[in-house]
Amino acid sequence: MLAINNDYKNDIPAINAIEEQIKNIAKSGFSHVHWCHDWNEEYMYCDIEMIQIKELLDNYGLKVKSIHASEGGFKAVRVNGKMVDYTHKYRNTVTRKDYTSPNEYTRLAGVELIKNRVNLAERLDTKEIVLHMQLPFKEFEESPKAEKIYWQQVFKSFDELKDYCAPKGIKIAVENLMMAPVKNEIEQFDKLFARYDFNFMGFCFDTGHGAIMYTDDPLFLVRKYQSRLIAAHIHQSLPIDPGLLNDDMAVLKHDVHQVPDFVDEHWEDLAKIIAESPYELPIILEVVIPADQKNVDMAFLNNAREKGQKFTEMVKGYQKSSK
Question: At what angle do helices 47-59 and 104-123 cross, to 10 degrees?
Answer without folding.
Answer: 30
